[in-house]
Amino acid sequence: MTAAIGQGEVEAVLPEVKDYDGLRRAFRWQIPDRFNIATAACDRWAEQAPERVAIRVVQANRQIEDVTFATLQRLANRIGNVLRARGVERGDRVALLLPQSPYTAAAHLAAYKLGAVAVPLAMLFGPDALSYRLGNSGAKALVMTAGSSEKIAAIREDCPELACVLSLDGAEDGVLGLEDEMARASDQLETADTGPDDPAMMIYTSGTTGPPKGALHAHRVLLGHIPGVQFAHEFFPQPGDLAWTPSDWAWAGGLLNVLMPSLYFGVPVVAHRAEKFDPEHAWDLLCDLGVRNAFIAPTALKMMRPATPPDLGARLKLRTIFSGGESVGRQLQDWAIDKLGMPINEIYGQTECNLVVESCSAIGVWKFGALGKPTPGHEVAVIDGEGNALPAGQPGTIAVKRPDPVMFIEYWRNPDATRAKFIGDWLLTGDQGIVDEEGYFSFFGRDD
Prior knowledge:
alpha/beta
């Protein structure tokens, strides 16, 4: 099926079936033989609806700048040509140490257009964390801001494969000015012919059990996220939808739950460069911009709750909100129902395999204390140590069955860890959980 959105049409993965069991039966993955994230998330919109807004930028002075798909494509093409001129080829890793910004989205798209592998890095990382990830990934190029210059200068010698460093804030010792380089580059760039299984991005795990591992994902990872975004955002997109998250776009939550799926559907994404999370400003942003779809982690929601504006009901335009990464909890849910006029749809997954269990209150898939049910398209179970699915009420390990478009390819340069992630065809999340008689999943601890 297709969903008309403005001047363009995109395939909507979720059928318009408002019954959970019927929705799961009707769902079919639609994975083409050739697929590139840059084409799906930008190029086709730039051709079909060039003046459509892709990113709504909130400036430091609270002024709003709209970036169209045509502009985003030109930025991506110029950055891609800069990277190619500096030796970046298909399969090379391009590290991105950037805040929420049109240039961040464009740098991702540039890497995908070259057939390279984007390696997003969180702005909060210190020198040791950056050194490990840059060294382990073998990144050939890094795009950053001046705020990271000191950290990168301190570790540059530890990253022998890092041949090129570009800064959004201009040239400095050993660093090229990205905009200066872009000014000399063409705004035309042919997108690489890639298949859905070709590598596109590598997102590092948090490293709670040993060194962080680079979860290598293919271009299909975007398509793998689409039903989860549509389900948790209650049949996203709807007319007037506008998406925002305070989460860093370096994390799977910001990049793949919000930025790329929204661009895929031609829905504008709010970009705001924040030094730290400010709950009062978050409320102003939500209300003043008329955000309709938000992904906000429980920690941020807990900060926003005591700062709830008294006139929220008259100002808020929110249609859907989902949250994950930790349990939302009864207090936050009660507050959301009372003050936001809707429950929070919980989501569950991990860097290696995201958005596989969710809630969707619009069709009655929602329950206090539960994560939700398997998202259409994903086979999820609680299993024992031998890989056998356990009956309702019996605790075990939450696992996801392969093949699955949202599932990672491998851990970068770590075949042993990749093998240990599976029992047969079951990907082990490492999370202990239980399924009740109604099919709702709950999480209660980690294997470690």
